[in-house]
Amino acid sequence: MNLNTNVIAHPNIALIKYWGKKDNNLFTPTKNSISYTLPYLSTTTQITLSQTNQDNIKINNVKQEAPSVIAFLNRFRDLFCIQEYFIVNTTNNFPTSAGVASSSSGFAALAKGLNALFDLKLSEKELSIVARQGSGSACRSIYNGFTIWHKGNNNDGLDSYAEQLFDEHHWPEFSMFVVLLSDQAKKISSRVGMQQTVNTCPHYQNWLTKSENRIPAMINGIKQKDLRMVGSLAEQDCLDMHYCMQTSKPVINYWTNRTKQITELITQMRNANILCYFTIDAGPNVKVMCLEQDKKTIVAEIKKRIPAICVLG
Ligand code: PMV
Questions:
Q1: Which atom of ligand 1 is nearest to the CA of 149?
Q2: pLDDT tens, 118-148?
Q3: Tens digits of residue pLDDT in 57-101
């Protein structure tokens, strides 16, 4: 056993989304999903053994109650029959809980760090299964590049894990940057929001079928490095997911006027033959997909409309 570890993980953004759990306790999803890991955003997590019988969590150097982190550490202790408590110090170089997928990199880093601390020698698949039990999307942040999360069918969740489809060198021209419209924590957590959608949205089953059918084409699009295919599938899947959110009861709306303005601008640019697409998660921020060579032009156009805007990536 090591006395402390320091690990890094990167957040991932879904191209084909996950929104809804089959089992709330095991964090198994209702559908398969595909994501891209953002290499330039990082969570760095240091874990040390605590001398007390409670966990101590600091996020961005501020001590926090962090119930979801404590629940994950309890689960980890149960899974691996471990008695120890931990001092966890985690920092993000990007906004936390604002729809930039900080929970995906956060729990992936925790799983990796605990693996290193106890020298468990877990495989990437096993790490993915462990990370999933902190936050579903975290199972995809074990990998760089493009990743698929297999929803699995077993009741024990052991066949619900992510796998790398293509590594980070496969398509270097592909770029995804974040238009940061808010760095505030979201009002409805994804955990609560997705449950509300599963329970109340009349269009949910329809989205599950449509979204699942997009998976083979998305894999093929990434394989062929076809931005038109990848971008249009991702954009449509995002819009369908947000339609489900907005037709849940009570309504879940993560969009602001600025979100709408950016999505309209992306569509306008595309109509003017600058190839770019958007995707949005549980927060107002917009992630833009384009080719590396067009990024400067697209960012400049966005900044022309909203000069004070912050872009990550
Ligand atoms: O893993 P969670 O609970 O943060 O949920 C993530 C949900 C979305 O980001 C909206 C979609 C996805 O597949 O990552």
A1: 13
A2: 999 999 999 999 999 999 999 999 999 999 9
A3: 999 999 999 999 999 999 999 999 999 999 999 999 988 766 678
CA 122 to chain centre: 22
Distance CA 166, CA 131 (A): 20
What does the buried/exposed string (b/e) look like for 260-287 if buried means 16 or more CB atoms within 10 Å of the residue's CB?
Answer: eebbebbeebbeeeeebbbbbbbbbbbb
Cα(244)–Cα(221) distance, integer angstroms:
25
List alpha helices for the chain, DSSP H. Answer: 67-80, 102-117, 124-132, 190-200, 204-224, 227-246, 257-271, 295-305
Which atom number of ligand 1 is nearest to the Cα of residue 13?
14
- Any residues with Cβ below 6 Å from ligand 1, and which? 14, 17-19, 33, 101, 103, 135-137, 190-191, 281-282
| Residue 140 per-residue DSSP state | G
In ligand 1, the atom with minimum distance to the C-alpha of 281 is 10
Separation of CA 306 and ligand 1 centre (Å): 27
For the chain, the distance separating the N- and C-terminal CA atoms, rounded to the nearest angstrom, is 37
Q: 285 C-alpha to center of ligand 1: Å?
A: 14
Contact 229, 256 (CB under 8 A): no
Q: CA 136 to CA 67: how far, in whole Å?
A: 16
> Cα(1) to centroid of ligand 1, in Å?
33
pTM: 0.96
Band (pLDDT 50/70/90 cuts) for residue 254 is very high
CB 52 within 8 A of CB 87: no
